[in-house]
Amino acid sequence: MTLSTIYQSIELLAKEKGIEAQIIFDAVKDAIILAARKQFKNVGEMTAEVDPKKGIQVFALRKIVEEVADPLNEWTLEEAKKNKIPAQLGEEIRQELPMEALGRISAQIAKQVILQKVREAERENVYSEFAGRVGELVNCVVKRIETRDLVVDLGKTEARLPAKEQSKLESFSIGDRVRVVIRAVEKTGKNAGVLVSRAAGELVMRLFEQEVPEIYDNTVVIKSCAREAGERTKIAVSSRDRDVDSVGACVGMKGMRVQSIIRELRGEKIDIIQFSENPVEFAIHALSPAKISRVSIVDSEEKHMEVIVDDTQLSLAIGKRGQNVRLAAKLLGWKIDIKSEEEKRQEVETQMADMLPAGTPISVLADFGLPENLIEALIGAEVSTVEQLGSLTPEELEQLPGVGEESIQSLYNSINGFYAQFEQQAGTGETSGETSGEVEGEAPSAESVDAALETAVEATADLPVAEPATESAVELEPAIESEVASSTETAIDSVPELAVAASAVEAVVDSEKA
Predict the structure, then answer these.
(1) DSSP 429-460
(2) Which CATH class is domain 3-124?
(3) How many other C-beta atoms are found inside a 10 Å radius of the C-beta of residue 457?
(4) I need a surface site. Which of 41, 182, 208, 460 has the fewest CB within 10 A?
């Protein structure tokens, strides 16, 4: 191969890989130096040159000194003259090394170094081009299939589409055109290169930006997106213009805009949610289509909320395998605990029970005739409250250590005496609530009626005598009849004796009618 052919090959390789030709020339120099080091063991520093006329040359660098301290890198004037190299003291000279000495192994080493340098330059070039394009939507073609991963062609480079970044609803063949988002760009490591995705939420966001002009011109803003590829996506949108409906703009007339995106995602379900700064209102929207009863903030700093739904709405709010509430939590960025009305009621009852006293100590039964030794035996058997003792059956009591069959009756007598005091208190309270007087249905005696009348007369002896009614008063009597009646009842009620007499007279009249 001639020198001109080598130069053309290097330039063609540089153009194909999209890198500078000088990078490849430098790689060739480094490879030749590394191969020469394997061949020439007694040489120190080296340098290489690629000359269009002379080809590739390798030189050993020597410094001319009076006394040699480093034989690998230093020569005296005599050694320079012996090798027919003109030199002066303190000068650095170059000794050309024979390229013919490099064998096949050295050539293979040089080849590997050149390929490695070219790959590094190519990766650097790819990284600098795509590092700032993460999240961008790009069109590509499936180039080959490696197990479950796909390798796609981005034009200037290849990208990898791993199986975990693919939707389970999709399958591709070689030559298919697909739209993907750039997920990451790695410079080094096993996955060096461009990583693209069809499962990221950014893909849905970029598709909406292309389909909805209001999002493209920033009138409608996508606030957040939560996605489980191949199943469901929730996307929250907000409008900067009060006259523009953000959800309606994304749906489009007759659903044309969102249906176009659904077709691109092979039928994946998409929920478009109205964004709200209020987390409670946002949660109600995010958990649709379930109807929410109420939402309470448990911890605003930790972003933890509790959602209560009707029992019939619980499964709908949670979703299939918890998908609905899981996506809603991702969309909000909050931890969501979802409960039914029945679960919340039971929780409140448990909390109330925990707040109540643990129970009445069993020692109070000593006041109701329970022997001290029996109380100690019950406490030793971990029966420490009256409520615990009352819940035990006779068979369970007999199994307690220190409690025999003859003690069971004594236990029940003490328990009955303890609870009887509450029944007596309840009965006393009911009696005190009744007014003193005759028992209902029993007619009063004549003596009690006479005594009541005498009391009434004595009570009214000092009352002023009403003036005779004038003609005008008689004419107004129908109008003021109700007021007079109410005034009379008020006057009777204000004097206790009159009230008793009035009730007695009514009782007599009722008994005579009967």
Answers:
(1) HHHHTSPSSPPTTPPPPHHHHHHHHHHHHHHT
(2) alpha beta
(3) 11
(4) 41
- CA separation, residue 346 to residues 308, 310, 349, 353 (Å): 13, 14, 5, 10
Alpha-carbon distance of 413 to 470, in angstroms, equals 76
Sequence-ordered list of residues with C-beta below 8 angstroms from that of 35, at least 6 positions apart, any chain: 102, 106, 107, 109, 110, 113
C-alpha span between 217 and 305 (Å, rounded) = 35
Q: How far apart are alpha carbons 406 and 122 in whole angstroms?
A: 97
Euclidean distance between CA atoms 472 and 4, whole angstroms? 142
Return the H-helix or E-strand segment holding 371: none
Strand duo 193-197 + 158-161: pairing: parallel
If you classify domain 276-353 with CATH, what class do you get? Answer: alpha beta
Query: How many CB atoms lie under 10 A from the CB of residue 264?
Result: 17
Tokens of 274: 């109205």
Q: How many CB atoms lie within 10 A of CB 172?
A: 16
Instruction: For the chain of 514 residues, list the mean pLDDT of each consecutive stretch of 10.
Output: 64 75 79 78 77 74 80 78 78 77 70 79 85 91 91 89 91 93 85 89 94 93 94 95 93 93 93 94 93 92 93 92 94 93 86 63 80 82 78 79 77 81 56 37 45 46 42 38 44 46 49 48
Question: Which secondary structure element, helix H or strand E, spans residue 198, and what is its range?
Answer: none
Contact between 90 and 64 under an 8 Å Cβ cutoff? The reply is yes
Quickly list H helices, 356-404. 372-380, 386-390, 394-398
Q: Which CATH number fits domain 129-264: 3.30.300.20, 3.10.110.10, 3.40.50.300, 1.10.510.10?
A: 3.30.300.20
